[in-house]
Amino acid sequence: MAIVRVALDARSYDIVIEQGALDRAGSWLAGYARKGRLVVVTDAHVAAAQLPRLEASLRGAGVAVEPVILPPGEQTKSWRHLEELLDALLALEIERGDHVVALGGGVIGDLVGFAASILKRGCHFIQVPTTLLAQVDSSVGGKTAINARAGKNLIGSFYQPALVLIDPSTLDTLPVRETRAGYAEVVKYGLIDDPDFFAWCEAEGDKLLAGDAQAREYAIERSVAAKAKIVGEDERETSGRRALLNLGHTFGHALEADTGFSQTLLHGEGVGAGMALAFRYSARLGLCAVEDAERVTAHLRAVGLPYDLASAHVTADGAGLIAHMLHDKKMAAGTLPFLLARGIGRTFLSKDVVLEDVAAFLDEDRAGG
């Protein structure tokens, strides 16, 4: 078992990483159950695979469970399902002192966190992430959101959970594609500022994807420790430090938008392709060695992640992808910051990228040039 602390003064909380934690959740969560009850929000897929384990543990600890089950998929991060969730929580008479449990992947975690941030001007919530992507990234740091027609995660808030409880064994029921998509976020931490961790990914990433428990736990702990440190330094992305966590996301969100935020391209797959594009664009600008960009692309290709526009099933040209980027929530005074790299483990925020040049690069990259 490992415990990583997110240090945010009064908003500080622990990330608990423990194999089989879901079966011992009662010991971790019983103290958060006011009046002996917890509301657990999940989706239909996770409800079938994981909810019985959580319910059995909580009931064994004397905690009654009120499940709220939503549809699976990215489309659930919407106004419609936010309203549905809020109505359900109000019907269950959730009070400001109550804790709502988010059991699921990034969609459920983001939606429940946002609902908790606005319900009665703020109740509490607990993250119990069940996908690799959520375990290493979205459950930590307090970014909550829903999507809008204009783009992804455009409506939301910074709102920290009270606890993050991670059980790597939940990955046993995850489709291989979902695990691989989450692995892109693991690789991201190495590319940001930890070249030794990227080298570990190159050497040991196959073990993680094959289900090796030790490799999983090591990658999860190392990833959340890296994110907790950055969040502790820059909770609301004001200094620029936290912005480094968006590596691959500006490109990736545009790729997701082009594919309709659908199963055609999962979020982690978009991030993977986006990181490869960011490194190749950095090499094109002469910022990093071509060999570094090729190394990133080679690793993503080797593990089966998208690494270019074709493998991401993107049909738009460069101008079309730039049009998607213009809806990015990071736009400021008409400028879109980009995460670029001076090498592996040397990511930085650039605010002087010329979007027309990015469009030309994307067209050249599609053509293989």
For the record, what is the CATH homologous superfamily label of the largest domain?
A: Dehydroquinate synthase-like - alpha domain
Shape call: globular
Counting structural domains, the number is 2
**Secondary structure tally, helices:** 14
Number of E strands: 11
Low-confidence stretches: none
Q: Quote the distance from N terminus to C terminus.
A: 47 Å
Gross CATH architecture of the largest domain: Up-down Bundle
Cofactor: Co(2+); Zn(2+); NAD(+)
Domain 3-dehydroquinate synthase C-terminal: 182-331
Subcellular location: Cytoplasm
Pathway: Metabolic intermediate biosynthesis; chorismate biosynthesis; chorismate from D-erythrose 4-phosphate and phosphoenolpyruvate: step 2/7
In short:
Residues 68-180 form the 3-dehydroquinate synthase N-terminal domain. The protein is α/β, with parallel strands linked by helices.
